[in-house]
UniProtKB/TrEMBL annotation:
Boundaries of every RapZ C-terminal domain copy: 164-282
InterPro entries: P-loop_NTPase, RapZ-like, RapZ-like_N, RapZ_C
NCBIfam families: PRK05416.1
Name this polypeptide is given: Uncharacterized protein
Positions bound to GTP: 59-62
All residue ranges annotated as the RapZ-like N-terminal domain in the record: 1-157
Keywords for the protein's UniProt record, in alphabetical order: ATP-binding, GTP-binding, Nucleotide-binding
Phylogenetic classification of the source organism: Bacteria, Bacillati, Bacillota, Clostridia, Peptostreptococcales
Residues involved in ATP binding: 8-15
Sample GO molecular function, one term: GTP binding
Record keyword Phosphoprotein present: no
The organism's place on the tree of life at top rank: Bacteria
Length: 285
């Protein structure tokens, strides 16, 4: 049985992620009291219906019952019940905007500001975040994009080889992705931004790619990066990692990082890995 616990910061998109899991064939229950996790897992395992895929939403709304989550997770491990944790993270300013837009209170901010509630929640969830198998930064994701990312990770999974690799380009001036496992800086490569006819174009276009790769340094770095990734992937799979995020950054996230993200994505697909490609900042100024 595939058993997923989805959690994270309030306002980070747990409801949308649950919908994505439902689209992937999971039986989902939101806001279950953490103390009931083990009993529910036993019920699913012993069910005559033989549920294959189950997802439970757990968050801080449980208030005083929330700390039971760690006891339940430890009990699951002791009983030999395998599970995965998806943790949704998000930048503070984005969360504040979401709460103001919906005119809702943060669960921990009834007697304080939204920001103070977020800071308090982050502290309470620190251990749970450290246990997560999949960490997703939703700061720059629209609801439909989050649902798609969840579906991409969990549709087509198979026993024994279920590592999904997300390769994302980004611009350093817009910040490093919160969920990145590996970060590579390509700001030392030839920059099309300073070529007038290429400035407003992107690394998805052949002319920009040719400019970036018109250097022996570019080709050597690409070769070394491929070798490094080829070395790492089997080791991550051996460890049992389910989701790996490779982030490649340049200054604005439009030219060099996009070019290299496309090439690394193609390399992973050719190598038979399950990969997802995203250009986070390609349309930003």
């Amino acid at each position: 049985m595939k058993f997923i616990i989805i959690t994270g910061l309030s306002g980070a998109g747990k409801s949308e992620a649950m919908r994505g899991l439902e689209d992937s064939g999971y039986y989902c229950i939101d806001n279950i009291p953490p103390a009931l996790i083990v009993k529910f897992a036993q019920l699913c395992i012993n069910s005559s219906e033989s549920m294959k895929k189950v997802a439970l939403g757990v968050d801080i709304r449980g208030r005083q019952f929330f700390n039971d989550v760690y006891t339940s997770l430890d009990e699951m491990k002791k009983l030999g019940y395998k599970y995965e944790i998806i943790f949704l993270d998000c930048e503070d300013d984005v969360l504040i905007k979401r709460y103001k837009m919906t005119r809702r209170n943060h669960p921990l901010s009834f007697d304080t500001s939204i920001l103070e509630g977020i800071v308090r929640e982050k502290e309470l969830l620190k251990e749970l975040k450290s246990r997560a198998n999949v960490l997703i930064d939703t700061s720059n994701l629209k609801p439909k994009d989050l649902r798609k990312q969840i579906r991409d990770i969990y549709i087509g999974e198979s026993e024994g080889s279920n590592l999904v690799i997300s390769v994302t380009s980004f611009g350093y001036k817009h910040g490093i992705p919160l969920d990145a496992d590996l970060v590579f800086d390509v700001r030392f490569l030839p920059n099309p931004y300073y070529v007038e006819e290429l400035k407003e174009r992107t690394g998805d276009e052949e002319e920009v790619q040719s400019y970036v790769m018109n250097s022996s340094v570019s080709w050597e770095f690409l070769s070394r990066l491929k070798d490094f990734i080829d070395f790492l992937m089997p080791n991550y799979m051996e460890e049992g990692k389910h989701h790996l995020v490779i982030a490649i950054g340049c200054t604005g996230g439009k030219h060099r990082s996009v070019t290299f993200t496309n090439m690394i994505y193609d390399h992973l697909i050719e190598g038979g890995y399950r990969a997802i490609k995203k250009h986070r900042d390609i349309r930003l100024k």
